[in-house]
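Handout, section B. The chain below has 239 residues.
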Amino acid sequence: MMRVRALHNRWVGAGLTAVAAVALLALTAAPVFADPAATSWTVDPKSKTVTYGEAVLLSGTLKSGATTIPGLWVDLGQGTTAVGSFEIIYKITTPQASGTARYEVAVIPHKTVYYLFRWGGDATYAASDSDVIPVQVMPALGAPTNGTSITVGKKLTVKGSVTPGAPGGPAVKIKAYRKKGDGSWTGYRTYAGKVSGTQYSQSVTIARTGKFKFKAVSVAGTEYAAGQSGFGRVLTVKQ
């Protein structure tokens, strides 16, 4: 009876040793999964200012180290601030035929917007966001119309176009300049413009004789960059 027990214990010990050896061999043979490779972005332009209604081409290049990564589907996000949340508005890939690694998309912002490229990551390449690209929008201001001759002290209306207009568009001011004796122009007065639809206007009175010209300007804000029109025709104010 004692001999049977000894043999039984020997078989159990041998079996446990064999199982442990098989388990160790399986662990040694199992593949080692590497972490996804780190990625980074370069963007062009880094920032941009456009006139209302104009398009801007945004371009991003995704890299892992010095190697560019074409052919993935990446996101373009937009936000109202540089540090806020970004809404994904496009999915972009690189052109198949050209072999370029540049992810490109044209956008037409209607007010100042912040964009970024975003790669969500996979088993090969880790996720990454590009730097934020601020695109500021200037209003489109038409040169004012004001006539060419008037009597001193008489009222005249200075007006022009602005897009975007009311409501929601930027405030507009009208700047008057007077011609000096040496032929140069100097600031004369600034008038607050009234915006109705897509037109700005103001009734002004010139209290002295001479030659004058006007242009429209808008003030920078969170939604629009500062803008200005060209000059209107020269106005001669007579006695």
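Note. The chain has one helix and 20 strands. Compare this with the example in section A.
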